[in-house]
Each structure stands twice: as structure tokens, then as C-alpha cells.
Predict the 3D structure of the following.
Amino acid sequence: MIDILDLIIRETLVAGVPGLTSARIGFQPPDDDWRQRVGASTGVWVNCALVDLREDRHMRMNIRRRITSDAGIVERREPARIRCHYLITAWNAAKDSAQMPATEQEHTVLGAVLALLLDADPLVASAILTPEQLAKLPSTLREAELPVEVVPPEGFSKLAEFWGTVGRATSWRPAVYLIVTMPVPEPDRRLDGVVHTVLTSYDAYEGGSTRASDGHGEQLADVGGLVLDATGGPAVPAVPVADADVVLVDPAGREVARVRSGDDGRFVLVGLRPGAYQARVTAAGLPPPAPGAVQVPGSPDALIELRFT
């Protein structure tokens, strides 16, 4: 994930800092190797050293969602939010001379970086990267807003320690302290045989809102099932139906939930109130079966099957 953030920062700087090219932006520590690399080239380079990582606990959400994906029914947790700390410095390959004050050139570039980043909150990959670059990113990161904090008043607390550990030949220089918060999603966890799960109980309280209760209030459930094609008759094994449209309706015929089955025919209907429902299913090229009865909450061990016959 950090390499994705590096790419977003690189492309932001290239697009917004005049004369800066991708080849003159580095993410290695600004040590003696870095100085040799700059000294063997031309122009002003920008170093973006990642110096710290911290979770933003204020943004932590312990939420799990059950969804239907191409992998079937999966459980997805809200991602952790990680604050990535960078020190950004400018380095001129030229030496000071009457014609080219090298330090002034560095300050010009560093000032342009600072102005750009101050105006760049939040960073959004879809507004920065090319379609080809976006295609390689996880879908959760393509439109995610990445909050940016630039040169915070408290500064980087270990700045002296940082410059003291990057090589004897490396002198202290000004740095733009950048903090970008990015989501780090966990892998989806495949769920098998899940029929329903009580998510939360709620009690109404004064003011008309709700609060978590001790289990005596309203219960909401997730109901999972399987769509099968059994049109081949009893002698032919039923096969899962992908991309079937499953609609749940209440006794009055009102739609309360809708979902499509995954590649393995599985589906999950989320956040249902207790009661009796009917499930209707349709799929291209198959005759629609009669609606199936669904009771919420039902038996934890029973799998709801919707069959085309």
C-alpha cells in the first residue's frame, strides 16, 4: 500500500511543480548514496523520505459487513487508517556560483512543493493517476480521499535524530513535513454456510434515536442463500447460478432488499427486520420459479435455496 501512496505523491509533484520530472523524485533516505546520485546528475531533485507510520485511532471503526462478491459471501472490515509521515527536501546537483545560487534554486523548488501540497487536501487517486495506473490499484483506493496535513505547528519531533543518522556528509536542510492518512483494507474473509446473523439489537430512547441494547430491542439480521439451476431434471446435479437477481418482498408486496448472486450462486441480504418474507429470483435464460418463503430470523443451520426448475 505504501508504494501506491508514493506513486500518488510522485505524480502530484510532477504535475504541479514546474520543471520537476519523475526521474528526479526519490523515496530513499537522503544519505550519502542519495547525495552521490544527485551529484552525478543535473537539476534540482526532490527527496520524499518516509520517516514514520502511525495508526489514527480516532478514525478506527470496528464494523464488519457481509457482502456478495465474485468470491461468494465475504465478510469485510472497515480499513485501518494509517498516518504516513514524510520529510520532503530539495537537492541541487549544481554548486553555488555567480550564475547559479544552488541553495536559492533548492528553496524555489521546495517552496513550489509546499504551495502545491497546501492546496492538495485531500489527495484522490482518480484525480491524479492515469487510467492505466488506476487499473492496478485496489478498488477501495481509487476514489478514497486521503487527508493531508502539511507543516504542522509541532513539527517532526525527531528531526535532529533524523539528520544525525543519514550519513556524515549530509548536512541539515529545511524540510516540508507531510502527513498523509490512507486506508489499509484487510483482505475479505470468505464465509460459507452463513444463513443469518443477528447484527445488533436496538432500543428506542428519548429523542427518537436508538442505542445499543441488551438484546431486548429490535434485532437486525443478515440472510444468506444459494441460487441453483435445476432445470436439467432430477437426474442432473443442480449447478450454481451467477448474477441472478434476488428480491425480498414483505407480505404487502413491498421490496425490502435486492442483491445479485456471486459466481458461486451465493447471496446475502443485509439488515432485515424479523418477519415473514418472500424471495423472488430471476436470471437470464431461465424460467422464473415461484417465490420462496423466507423467515427472519430462521434456523441458523438452514441454507435458503432458490431453485430454477
Observations:
- The first helix runs from residue 2 to 16.
- Residues 193-216 have pLDDT under 50 and may be disordered.
